[in-house]
Amino acid sequence: MSDPVNTAADRLSRRRARMLPMFALIFLAQQASYFSQTPGERLVDHVRIGAWVMMVTVLLALLVTGGFWFRSPAVRALMEDDVARANRASAITLGFVSAMLASIIIYVFEPRFPLTAREAIHLIVSAGLATALIRFGLLERRALG
Amino acid sequence: MAETLANTLKQARETRGLTQAELAALIGVSRKTINTVENGVFVPSTVIALKLAAALGEPVERLFRLAIDE
Fold first, then answer.
1. What's the gap in Å between the CA of A40 and the closest CA on chain B?
2. What does DSSP assign to residue A67?
3. ipTM exceeding 0.85?
4. Considering Cα of A24, then A26, then A32, then A38, what sign does the dihedral take?
5. Do residues A14 and A130 make contact, with C-beta atoms less than 8 angstroms apart?
6. How far apart are the C-alpha atoms of A76 and A13, rounded to whole Å?
7. Helices (H) then strands (E): counts for chain A
8. pLDDT in tens, A96-117
9. Is B4 helix (H, G, I), strand (E, B) or coil?
């Protein structure tokens, strides 16, 4: 009696719960390449910066909307139920706290470890986004049982 | 003294021979919602609580009650 829409929503929710922390870890791993070779004004540097902006935008959209944009509205509605919204709110709150803590640390240690504005933004966005993605994925996994 | 929401949803569902997915389909929510409500992870909205009660044929206050932890 369980309908195919519910089954699909369950399967995709599980996939999302597995994917988001993985995306966060891949995203964090990519930061190492940025800081090992700070971008300059070469064409390749602009491509790297553009790629980072694109990646952050996609990850943010995944976190905020839940992803699976080309699935049917019925499946997406089931995936974006009250539980998912509560989990997302909790994840975004923790992400915000994480970004604020990163900002405070950068502010306090700036004289000792000077950073460019771009590097500081990189760190703050990475801390906030990765924390929120991991938290959302873990909460969803727990909810799915 | 903290108040939590206890429920007998799992017993009521199993008495009627329904799986979580089947109950979810009956009231138009995800299986995840049923699972989290049963485990006390998620406090359902009034609408969901009333739908659950209607689907299981029980008064809502029999499915849900306040448990006071001391």
1. 48
2. S
3. no
4. negative
5. no
6. 9
7. 5, 0
8. 999 999 999 999 999 999 998 9
9. strand
Residues in chain A: 145
Tokens representing A75?
A: 């499946």
Joined together, the tokens standing for residue A81 give 């139920």
For an interface test with B, which of A12, A78, A80, A136 has the most B Cβ atoms less than 10 Å from its Cβ?
A: A78
Angle at A70 between CA B19 and CA B42, to 5 degrees: 40
How far apart, in whole angstroms, are the C-alpha atoms of residue A115 and residue A106?
A: 8
State the DSSP string of A91-121.
HHHHHHHHHHHHHHHHHHHTTTS---HHHHH
Partners of residue A143 in chain B, C-beta under 8 Å: 32, 35-36, 41-42
Who contacts B16 (Cβ-Cβ below 8 Å, separation ≥6)? B56, B57
For residue B37 the two structure tokens come to: 């409500």
Q: How many CB atoms are located within 10 Å of the residue A60 CB?
A: 15
* Distance (Å) from the alpha carbon of B50 to chain A's nearest alpha carbon: 15
Query: Rounded to whole angstroms, how far apart are CA atoms A66 and A58?
Result: 11
Query: Which pLDDT tens digit goes with each residue over A34-67?
Result: 777 766 778 888 888 888 899 999 999 999 999 9
Q: Which two tokens stand for residue A95?
A: 């992400």
Give the closest of B19, B30, B35 to A9, CB-based. Answer: B30
